[in-house]
Amino acid sequence: MIQSFSISNYRSLRDVVAPLEQLNIVTGANGSGKSNLYKSLKLLSEAASGNLVSALAKEGGLDSLFWAGPESFSRDMKAGTQPVQGGPRREAVRLKLGFCSDDFGYCVSLGLPPPPMADNPDPSMFSLDPEIKRECIWAGPSYRSASCLVDRKGPVVKVRSGRKWEVYVQNMNTFESILSEIADPIAVPEIFSIRSIIKSWRFYDHFRTDKESIIRVPQIGTRTPVLDHDGHDLVAALRTIIEIGDNEALNLAIDDAFPGASIAISVDEGTRFTLQFYQHGLLRPLDQSELSDGTLRYLLLTAALLTPRPPELLVLNEPETSLHPDLIPALARLIIRASKETQVWIVSHSTKLVKELNMDTDNHAISLVKELGETLIKGQGLLDKPSWHWPD
After folding, report:
1. How many CB atoms lie within 10 A of CB 125?
2. What pTM did the predictor assign?
3. Could you count the other beta carbons within 10 Å of the beta carbon of residue 163?
4. On the chain, which terminus has fewer CB atoms closer than 10 Å, C or N?
5. What DSSP line would sit under 197-259, residue for residue?
6. Which residues are 315's β-sheet partners?
7. 205 closest CA partner among 317, 60, 77
8. Cβ–Cβ contacts within 10 Å for residue 126, how many?
9. Mean pLDDT per 10-residue interval, the chain, length 392 residues
10. Cβ-contact 226, 309 below 8 angstroms
């Protein structure tokens, strides 16, 4: 299980260490930083697939993602007796992301490259690409130099061997992560383990359910134990749950939301799967093209939460979108059920969904507030923060 997630210098997240439990509910007013927290976790997941730099580019480039406020706030600034102003920086500007699991911890630090040499006749056109300055993997609840197992500084990667360090790579590209470039489970099992953990994370955010959505069109079906992030393989995923997953839980989830309703899957000669949604009072079933946005979205969330292959971490961003309030209790029960098998992170605006989820005593609430443009975890004092140290 992920014990804590840490972010530094990402948009409004100047310095956040979020403790995590089995079921985590992130709430807060509009503009408090919920989306930034979600995006930063998703950004960290890109390191394992080698898309970290391109993901930064899609968000506008590293320079635009940095925390825009001062390096630190003085007591007078916080009290309002002195205007918020910057000063000479004591540290280089870095975007830092990291997490700690039951066994290992990982962090990555990104910064802008040094300016090109004035006498360079042919400077690179990629001179504004972010560089990975530091990556570390350690054992234990927080980073310590004595517990560090893999340490990457710029192009050099060192691996601990007993009490000594051995250079594993001397010339790694600064735009590539060790998680995507080093794949030796024998020499560096720690990298293999961290990559496996991160690659199992799943993110679901705003399925497209409009009339032109690909989800509404029959698709060629193949076994689908994991619903794709865009939900295009919904019908195949539901059929997979029926055949090799918890079919009883699927039937109960549909009946819980739509009393008396049930589903079936039909297949044409071209092996295209079509959903058949049977509802009390109707003389024929409805297919996916006829369902309302809310009904289709509920089925998508059901397929994600009842997956036959539970991930290490399942993240849902505003799952209540487009759902009728009457469906919220059934969705909450689905989420609570899924949290018994996998760690779940919910980002929500819905007070009703949060209230329903709070009926589960094992949930962990993370309420965000914003002060002087900075996102903070409400009520978190110095003694409440999980132990966390960034490498020097």
Report:
1. 7
2. 0.91
3. 6
4. C
5. HHHT-EEEE----STT-GGGS-EE----SS--TT-TTHHHHHHHHHHHS-HHHHHHHHHHHST
6. 203, 345
7. 317
8. 9
9. 94 95 95 94 92 88 88 80 78 92 93 77 74 94 92 95 91 92 88 93 93 93 95 96 97 97 90 94 94 96 97 96 94 96 95 91 90 93 88 86
10. yes
